[in-house]
Amino acid sequence: MRRYALWIVAVLFVALLFPRPAAASGPADAERRNPVAPDALCTPRLQLRHPARCSAGGPGGRAAELAQQGLYPQRPLPIASVDPSLGYMPFRYVRASNGAVEVYSSAQGALNGSGSSSTVGPGFVFFSYYDRIEEGGKVAYSTAQGYISGSQVSRVTPSSLRGVAFSRTPDRPFGWVISGGACSQRTPGGAEDYTGRCYMRYTLVQVYDTQRVGEWDWYKIGPDEWMEQRMLALVFPDPTPPQGVTDDRWVSVNLYEQTVAAYEKGQLVYATVASTGRYGFWTKPGLFQVWAKLERDDMTGGVPSAEHSNFYFLGDVPWVMYFDQARALHGTYWHNKFGTPTSRGCVNLSTFDAQWFFNFLDEGSWVYVFDPSGNTPTDPAMYGPGGA
After folding, report:
1. Using omega within 30 degrees of 0 as the cis cutoff, is the peptide bond preceding 76 cis?
2. N-terminal to C-terminal alpha carbon distance within the chain
3. CA atoms of 152 and 367, how far apart (whole Å)
4. Contact, 347 vs 321, CB < 8 A?
5. Which residues contact 52 (CB under 8 A, 6 or more apart)?
6. Are the beta carbons of 146 and 104 closer than 8 angstroms?
7. Contact 72, 44 (CB under 8 A)
8. Eight-class DSSP state of 214
9. Burial (0-12, 13-18, 19+ Cβ within 10 Å), 260
10. Regions in the chain scoring below 70 on pLDDT
11. Of the residues 42, 44, 262, 275, which has the fewest C-beta atoms closer than 10 A?
12. Can you tell me the distance from the alpha carbon of 208 to that of 224, in angstroms, rounded to the nearest whole number?
């Protein structure tokens, strides 16, 4: 044992007397000597408390700058997983091209264009179909109303928009870019000063600061990156139950921002972009309760007319939750204008989002509709029963 210890001492003594020659220095050697990236050395705590210790020219310096702006670390939203099967539809949809649509009692009649039994429209008309029949270059669709000719309709594809679920209430406001191709600016308002960063529609962003410039708010969505409020549909998390809500579960519909948020047990659990009533067909502000839930329902209104028709027929509207007469939260397959007031009073949702809310709400659940701008009329005399 003593001999082994003496041998180790001798080896160490020789190593000290005859050190290994240093190899030529280069980038690879520097990387081996400093295997930890500068960003990793500049931890969030170090950046906040001692920013000077982070390199001014490297990534660490940028992180220190962000820390001083209150933007670092940019905590991701606490997004939770959602059942990916939501939004599945057992049928597909077609839209009437022009004029009234002839309805036939048989597929052969629709293929040949003979012996129609009724008509639908003219107007804003959509059918759900269960089967597509093709024969001799002609097409017919099987619908709940009967068979229709493919020459009078065209197929439509519902929006793929999906909201976000949360594991807890986010720390700050967030929202979606609703104007595709919108580009951020380095400074809020004033002369154009674009960053070169542009966003696809429905991109999710967080809000770190707000500045009022003229008649519009500008929101800081990143370091030196601002976007004007008309480009965004935002959610300002507020888990305080609205006055009158007597349950720990409710939905808030923000008419100004065109967003819908679901709360449960004092936490924001889901949010998305919606499309509420357009001018003259407003979604009425107030506190309501869901009075009926239907997995699907036909929606129709107006009067068919060859000129200036206000008639509409929407077959098999999915995941319908009526809360104020004929006004409902429901799935929408006929447009992709979420973030813009478009409906006749209902709260239009993507089919995916509508099914999420359908599973979340019960008959009797609370729906709070509000307009923080105060621009939506509140006089009940200005409202009819509503529509899709």
Report:
1. no
2. 91
3. 39
4. no
5. 64
6. yes
7. yes
8. T
9. buried
10. 1-74, 305-308
11. 44
12. 11
CB environment 219-244: b (16+ within 10 A), e (fewer): bbbbeebbbbbebbbbbbbeeebeee
Is residue 367 within 8 A of residue 253, CB to CB? The reply is yes
pLDDT at 306: 62
> What does the pLDDT read at residue 4?
43
For 30-85, the DSSP string reads HHHH--S-HHHHS-HHHHHH-GGGS-SSSHHHHHHHHHHHT--S-PPP-EE---TT
b/e sequence 280-296, b meaning 16+ C-beta within 10 Å: ebbbbbebbbbeebeeb
Query: What three-state secondary structure class fits 191?
Result: coil
Q: Residue 17: what pLDDT?
A: 43
33, HSE (Cβ side, Cα atoms, 13 Å): 9
Q: How many residues does the chain have?
A: 388
Average pLDDT over the chain, rounded to whole?
A: 84
Contacts of 164 (CB under 8 A, 6+ apart): 77, 79, 204, 270, 271, 272
Residue 60: per-residue pLDDT: 44
pLDDT tens digits, one per residue of 319-371: 999 999 999 999 999 999 999 999 999 999 999 999 999 999 999 999 999 99
Per-residue confidence (pLDDT) for residue 20, from 0 to 100: 42
